Hints:
By secondary structure, this protein is α/β, with parallel strands linked by helices. It folds into 2 domains: 3-180, NAD(P)-binding Rossmann-like Domain (Rossmann fold); 183-344, N-(1-d-carboxylethyl)-l-norvaline Dehydrogenase, domain 2 (Orthogonal Bundle). 49% of the residues lie in helices and 11% in strands. It has an 8-stranded mixed beta sheet, with helices on both faces. Helix 5 (116-123) links the parallel strand 5 and strand 6. Helix 8 (182-204) runs antiparallel to helix 9 and helix 8 (182-204) packs parallel to helix 11. The protein starts with a strand and ends with a helix.
Amino acid sequence: MPRVAIIGTTTWGVTLGVVLARKGMEVRLWARTEQESAELRNARYHSDVLSGITLPPQLSITSSLSEALADAKAVILAVPSQRVRQNIKSVPDHLDGSMLIVSAAKGLEIDSNKRMSQVIADEISPGFWPNICVLSGPNLSQEILRDLPAVAVVAAWDEAVARRAQKLLNTPNLCLYTNTDVIGVELGGALKNIIALGAGIADGLGYGDNAKAALITRGLTEITALGVTLGANPLTFSGLTGLGDLIATCSSPLSRNHYVGVELTKGRSLEEIIKSMNGVAEGVATTIVAHNLAQQFELEMPITEKIYKVLFQGLSPRQAALELMEAEARHELVGRRWQLFSLFKR
Length: 346
């Protein structure tokens, strides 16, 4: 069986390693330190992630990057979005012409406002750019570890590359579709986390399913408006990495971003909530980037604006909800600098 390297012992990184190893693939998981690597090797157990699930024997852990990447058909970067650049900088010397480079991070880089595939491209030779893929979709790790059925999308600019990644990474319980809209797939996976923060706030305030359905729907329209501005295909956002991921993340208590939204309604500070979590709620950093992009393109993004003010400017969750409800309602596909109305007008 082919070999796959995974960079990062995050929840998603370990989860992908487990499901690929269960398929019978040889998986090498790279840990940043020898101490972490030794603990995982000796225990065959990741207490923060696996909740009692033993690591398969086909999954090995190493702190040697050269060992992890040797003869690998693909390297998967499953680290928080703000650490992707730091991690990919260590990889180029170990790449070869056929190795797939798969981003499994759902976020946007704060300093540059870039998508993860752009960050990766910045740090590797242009000759490897065609091998860059992105993996996204409605994928809650705890369900996938329990072998519950799930689907995802692997996207690359070249359909042949996407199909090669699909064939390599598809498993019996994680079915992969392909797409060539890399921009849309990445933005859907990143921006839905902002709306999930809002969904958590709505649930925390006890606003009911009608309000949450409205938030999800208006959030999807807002995501699509920014996506189209940045060059995405609007139809991508009606698919797995848009609507599908949005539903899962906004509806499930397993979602970290939803959790953060709920906890904010209890009067806890963002700093306190983040310190209490094992993993990263990507929506926090993504809100900063989306807010920056909205200002750059003079886009009307009211949900993003309110979430930004709740997170960073002291606006109370309840007041944010009231202000959204008091906003002037117009045609639902019209907003300042949106291109949606012309695309969908009937």
